[in-house]
Amino acid sequence: MSSAGAVDLSVKIGALRLRNPILAASGTFGYGLEFAHLVDLNRLGGLVSKGLSREPIEGAPAPRLYPTPSGMLNAVGLQNVGVRAFVVEKLPALRRFDTAVIANVFGYTLEDYIEVIRVLEDSEGLAGYELNVSCPNVTKGGMQFGSDAICLAEVVSAARKAAAKRPLWVKLSPLVTNIGLIAKAAEEAGADALTVANTYPAMAIDFRTGKSRLGSPTGGLSGPAIKPITLRLVWETRKAVKTPIIGLGGIETVEDVLEYLAVGASAVQVGTASFADPRASERLVETLTNVLERTKAFTLNKIMDRFQAED
């Protein structure tokens, strides 16, 4: 228990200590700066940047978002300014905030990942990296890096060698037969933490026109609709590895946060909820503090890994 009955929300993700377990998810919070006039970034456990690539990417055609029952489809196409522009134009302003900034990294070849991390390693102001391994590997017929244990281990191992200065998180794809096997491969290849999980490929069409509701044929499904599925993935991952887990999928309420912690997550990321309420992540920090005060739990230790399956 914290001294003087004060609530302690801090968590450890490997060697990285966060002031609380609430982070803003990649792709839903811009580079963080876009929300700085609405959200007190210093109150968050951290923020994960938009995905950063070797070169700038314009992204997918509009429309890029489409609401669905209990969720949302997005087809942004990984639009970003490129890693070098991020370092020059975005990162200096982020340094003035007292929050952990995690750079989300993606690529279409092994060399892409290594080059992005190499550029970031020479820059100050980052707390770690998060690998998006849901991208197609163009050197292996378009197979996702994260869909095959051998392919995943290869990219994580290479990224681990490149990321000598900072922790390395790996954001797993939900589209795998055995996420425990995939998680174990990432852990053994050097991942310091695992983010579970990315969005689910899905689609919405207008039967009148016979066309997609998005500018692309398919998009990624996120929001409350996916929470029960992703909760199971977090639990399956926790049974397979000892590496810290960051849960991601459909988090809107403090109950959602506590459920993810109960099945094995050490922290969570808030994504789709930020579209409806830019302060969603900050409000969750406030509510979580109030809940622990009211229940006199004071720390999160009694909640983490609380779930027990019936024999």
Overview of this protein structure:
Helices cover 30% and strands 20% of the residues. It is of the alpha/beta class and 311 residues long. The protein has one domain: Alpha-Beta Barrel (TIM Barrel), CATH 3.20.20.70. β14 (205-206) and β15 (211-212) form a beta hairpin. 47% of the residues are buried. The mean pLDDT is 95.
CATH class designation: Alpha Beta
Order of helices and strands: EEEEEEHEHEEEHEHEEEEEHEHEHH
Strand order, sheet with most strands: 3-4-7-8-11-12-17-18
How many separate structural domains? 1
Main β sheet profile: 8 strands, parallel, barrel
Task: Using the coordinates shown, work out and report the CATH topology.
Answer: TIM Barrel
For the secondary structure, the number of strands is 18
Helix content estimate: 25-40%
CATH homologous superfamily designation: Aldolase class I
What's a concise summary of this model?
By secondary structure, the chain is of the alpha/beta class.
Task: Reconstruct the topology from this structure.
Layout: E1 11-13, E2 16-18, E3 22-24, E4 46-48, E5 65-68, E6 71-74, H1 83-94, E7 100-105, H2 110-121, E8 128-132, E9 136-137, E10 143-144, H3 149-162, E11 168-172, H4 179-189, E12 193-196, E13 200-202, E14 205-206, E15 211-212, E16 219-222, H5 227-240, E17 245-248, H6 254-262, E18 267-270, H7 273-276, H8 280-295
Features:
TIM Barrel; four-stranded antiparallel β-sheet; globular; single chain; alpha/beta; 311 residues
